[in-house]
Every structure is written in C-alpha cells, then in structure tokens.
Amino acid sequence: MEAVSGNGARGGHSIEFPLWKTPQSVRTSSLTRGIPEPAVHRVREDTHDVDRVGTLAALEDPEPADRPEVPEDDEDDEEALPHSEAVDVFQEGLAMVVQDPLLCDLPIQVTLEEVNSQIALEYGQAMTVRVCKMDGEVMPVVVVQNATVLDLKKAIQRYMQLKQEREGGIQHISWSYVWRTYHLTSAGEKLTEDRKKLRDYGIRNRDEVSFIKKLRQK
C-alpha cells in the first residue's frame, strides 16, 4: 500500500479511510492495538473480576500457614477466677506452706505477713517480744531486730486485729486511748520514746514487755 499525505491525496486522487479504520471508531494502545473497543472493555472487566474474586478468596480463606495459632492456654487465662475463689486458693496454698516444721506454730488462717515474720525469725532477722496484758495473757509479737517502740506498738495493734478477726469478740479498740492511758515497760523501765530502738532499752529476743497505767499529771 502506498503512503498517503496528511491531506490524504496522491496524484490528484483522494483516498478515503475505510469506516472501520477511523480514529473515532477504534481507540488503540500498545497492548490493545487492533482489538475493537467493546472487546477491550470486556477483557478489562473480566480481569478486574478475576482480581476481585482472588482478593476476596485470599481474605476469606487465608492459607493455613498464614493463620495465627491461638494457644489453648490463652483461652484458659481469660477465664479469671472470682475474687472469693482466688482467696480460697491462696489460703489453701498458705495452709500447705505452714505444714513445714519451721511454720507449724502458725494458725491455719495464716497471713502472708505472718509467714514472712516467721521466716525472718528463723534467719535471725526478727525477734519475738512477749507482751503481757493486764489480764495475764501473753502475746508473742514479732518485730524486726532494729524495731523502735513505735514499731512494737503497731505490731501489737496488728496482732490484736488478727486475733479479733479469727476469734470474734470486740471489733474495735481505741488505740489512741490505750497509748494515752498506758505505758509499755521492760524490766521496770518505761518505753516513753517512740523513736528509740528496742535494743537501746536492752530488749532482746523473747524478752517481756508489759503495760503500766500512766500517772495523772496534776
């Protein structure tokens, strides 16, 4: 075929483009050259549908290797025990601990604080002060070796609180009244300075301390 000029004429004759070759009838690209427009659209739509179906399939049904494994233990951990049951489990564990010969003197409803105090006693990090009440009862109160008079007073209060919770009876003691009314004494010496260490008063392990009523100031 001979080339034509821009105006489509050679040798005085005009050459008309066939209708199916006009630029208005066929739009071409490097990939779809020579393919009619409806067919190109159809191929694009089919390709889009295939990509969409493949994407949905990948989202809905991932490969087994890509699926995250959920440990069975995690499901069990999510079911936390109620507080009351957790307390029961803790108490049962403590009850087993106190069966040890070193802890056999502790009560069944023992607290973690009492267990730690008993262990500190065995390692020489604490001492027992025998506090004698005015009715003759002796309270074995555990304090650390460098405890002060104030530490001993707090330990006495804690001892009485636990005793009341286990045995019932009087539920409230006004300790501010007790310490305003009574002194603690050891070997006839009044423990008047709260910040002074017990060992500075000569108090050692298993020594006795008693209550004595304060004299009214005139």
From TrEMBL:
SNRNP25 ubiquitin-like domain mapped to chain residues: 127-215
Q: Which UniProt keywords apply?
A: mRNA processing, mRNA splicing, Nucleus, Ribonucleoprotein, Spliceosome
Q: Where in the cell?
A: Nucleus
Q: Which InterPro entries does the entry link to?
A: SNRNP25 (IPR039690), SNRNP25_ubiquitin (IPR040610), Ubiquitin-like_domsf (IPR029071)
Does the entry feature the keyword Membrane, yes or no? Answer: no
Bias kind Basic and acidic residues: ranges: 39-52
**Is the Transport keyword given for this protein?**
no
Cellular-component GO terms for this entry: U12-type spliceosomal complex
Name by which UniProt lists this protein? U11/U12 small nuclear ribonucleoprotein 25 kDa protein
**Which species is listed as the source?**
Microtus ochrogaster
